[in-house]
Specification:
Elements lengths: L1 E7 L2 E11 L2 E5 L6 H14 L16 E5 L3 E5 L2 E5 L14 H13 L9 E8 L4 E4 L11 E7 L2 E5 L9 E5 L4 E4 L8 E3 L13 E8 L3
Antiparallel strand pairs: 1-2, 2-3, 3-12, 4-7, 5-6, 7-14, 8-13, 9-12, 9-14, 10-11, 10-13
Bound molecules: succinic acid (SIN) and fe (ii) ion (FE2).
């Protein structure tokens, strides 16, 4: 754990960072400065591309509702998982990635040592109380040298983070409003999950958690 000073265009910035695993960091509260703009941008995206519950290749409907913005969106159906430039619900391209999303993802990745990260996909997850995301790897992306950047907004969740094997030991960390997690390098293919959300309420989101996950898909 360390409280580090970083030089940015705006001057000196203090970022509270925790090591989650090898090449994986939690930047505590890093998104707080942009919280209102970020949530307004989520509202803009979901007007064009509403949240929906995707079906897994195995036929299960996911409890977490999802949508995307950016050139590519992550989708799942009976045919499999993939990235697609077209939203299958609307038949239109995904909404553009808001500049505030892009800048936050690039800056967070750079702080974690991934200087040339330019995401082309942002998956937006909406967790209601009781919903969870089961253990998985993010491995539908072409270049695993590029990290994953994940932004948590709204009510807290417990994030589970393990190793490259499903059965590797896992640690549990709380993620709260404004936290940003970056994982890449040796942790890029780490299994991770979100445990069932406990009842809670946040002044800006109500009883919901929103997660933005930035990827370089192609
Ligand atoms: C994900 O693994 O896609 C989302 C992680 C999270 O919601 O924190
Ligand atoms: Fe994931």
């Amino acid at each position: 754990m360390s409280n580090d000073l970083f030089e940015t265009d705006e001057g000196i910035e203090r970022v509270w960072q925790e090591v989650l695993a090898e090449d994986a960091l939690i930047l505590r509260g890093y998104a707080l400065a942009e919280q209102h703009v970020l949530l307004r941008a989520v509202d803009d995206v979901i007007r064009e591309a509403p949240f929906r519950h995707l079906v897994t290749p195995g036929g299960f409907t996911m409890s977490v509702a999802m949508t995307n913005c950016g050139p590519l969106g992550w989708v799942s159906d009976r045919r499999g998982y993939r990235y697609d430039a077209i939203d299958p619900t609307t038949g239109k391209p995904w909404p553009a990635m808001p500049p505030v999303f892009l800048n936050l993802a690039k800056e967070a990745a750079a702080l974690a040592g991934f200087d040339d990260f330019v995401p082309d996909a942002c998956l937006i997850n909406r967790y209601e109380v009781g919903t969870r995301l089961s253990l998985h790897q993010d491995r539908d992306e072409a270049d695993t040298n590029q990290p994953i950047v994940s932004v948590s907004l709204g009510i807290p969740a417990i994030f589970q983070f393990g190793g490259n094997q499903r059965t590797d030991p896992k640690i549990r960390v709380p993620l709260t409003h404004g936290d940003v997690v970056v994982w890449g390098g040796r942790s890029r293919l780490a299994y991770h999950a979100v445990l069932p959300l406990k009842a809670n309420s946040h002044p800006l989101t109500g009883s919901v958690r929103i997660n933005l996950t930035f990827r370089k898909a192609r």
